[in-house]
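**Folding the chain**
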Amino acid sequence: MGYSASPIEGGSTTTWELDQLQINGEPVTVPMVAVKSDKTVTETTTLSTGTKITISVTSNRGDNGSSAIRYYRMDVENCYENLTVSAGNLVGHNHKELVFKHLNGVSDPKYYKIKNGKGDWFDLKPGSLVERASGNNYTDPIRFKKADGYQMPHISYTKKDGTKLQEDDDFKTGEDAFVEYLIKNESGFKGVSYENWQASSDGYYYFCGTKALQNYMNAAPAQGVVLVNIQASPIKYGINYVSGAGRTQDGVQISPNLTDIEDMPAYQNGGENGYNCENHQKVLISNQQPVDKTGRFIFDHWEVLTAETQDDGTGCPTETVKKLADGNPLTYAEGESLQCSGDSIAAVQDCLYYDRDKDRKILTLRAVWKAREERDAIPYMVNFYVSYKENGETVTKKIKSRTHMVNPGARVVADLYQYEDGKKQLSANIQNVLSGDNETGSAYDGEYRIDDEKTTKGIDNVTVDNNTVNIYLVKVEKEDPSKPSDPVTPTDPSKPTDPSQPMDSSQQTTSAATSSAQSSSQQTADDAAATGDNFAPVLWIATAAAALAGIGVVLAGSRRKKQ
């Protein structure tokens, strides 16, 4: 679809330009271009139904007001509805209008206008036109409220080609401001700098044009239209977790000591753009539960802390818990979610502070603990140690600790080995720890073996006082091939058995079964050690199965003998 806006036949010297368009009642962003420009400007709008409207405009670069023509093209995609142009406007190049192109992150935007001799506030929408002639003053104010979840908005006045005249307090054209920032008080308005601009007592931000803007728009017919943009970026949020360690109530300790707490969730920054109200609204509270390795306390839930902020917005969390309207604390369970929009984020505004280093507004969650009862799960720890030679000396150090929860009295088996292609080797868990999944962040290259004498194979009865598995890994030192080894003294050859005395078939079968059962039992024991940190009944099941298999073989041999 194409359309051209050109001078009217009969000698008109006005060049017309499309500056407003609505389709099916929804505003469509209209591109604007100077008649002397050789660029094609494009704007795309997606309607609430999903229909995509793309408008492009190109000028023939004719003389302004006489032979200038603008060509418009509209492309429609993903359309499954009838389209109706419900509103639009063409403006002459000598007309004096403010066109509100962008209104992002604000609510209830309005402009002041004299109508029928009486001043009143009128709604603003993207594409709204505000005439600045015929009794309407350049200094008439504009106002809006900052939408929840958005930062302080930026104000800019631009030419139709996008060239900025002023942004915030930065004058792009000339030495005089085109925008004045206002704070409303009982006596009227007070002009301030953008840096000191804030919402008035009624919650609105106010600003207006200046005499310099009027002079600019009147200086030439082609400057009669100026674009106004009010744009706020979504606030970036992050979630921080604190342990709540060492707290007391009425002289009684109600949480573990800091040195006894492990597995605290890490800070969540929400990705590059943080959690925000536009495209990353849902915040999932960490599923990771902190653990008291002494077993005295267990984690119960998270509570939200209020924040203390400075004049510049930075601050820190307090020790005060956020209370709901009913007086109960605001809490979250692990894995629960909250939204960075609407009532959810509005309820925690006094709990947010800005962290300049993280470039996020931070919400702080504190762990709440309860005393462990007899029936409650208790922790057990798995410690990983490595030993290796360094400068001729043996170095032994702990490289990782993991804490798990089990029921009291549970049996745990250390995860030591696995079988791959029939070959016994260190478990995948241990291999991961050696390859860098450890507190040092280092990879321990080379071949390592289990130190059987020092390593805890398992715990038969986990209690608060018996809850630690230590795994010691020793690096296998390779012999220097340049040093010859001592010759090995040959052993006497074994004496051959007397072939004249054959073994009874039943004896052969029983012996083989016994050998098989022993082999199976040994492998099953190794497999049980590789079952992880939880109780592993597979050892006993596999052993029983091997024994039953042996019995089956013996019985089958007896039947054949009778036959």
Observations:
- DSSP finds five helices and 39 strands in the chain.
- Residues 252 and 396 are 39 Å apart (CA to CA).
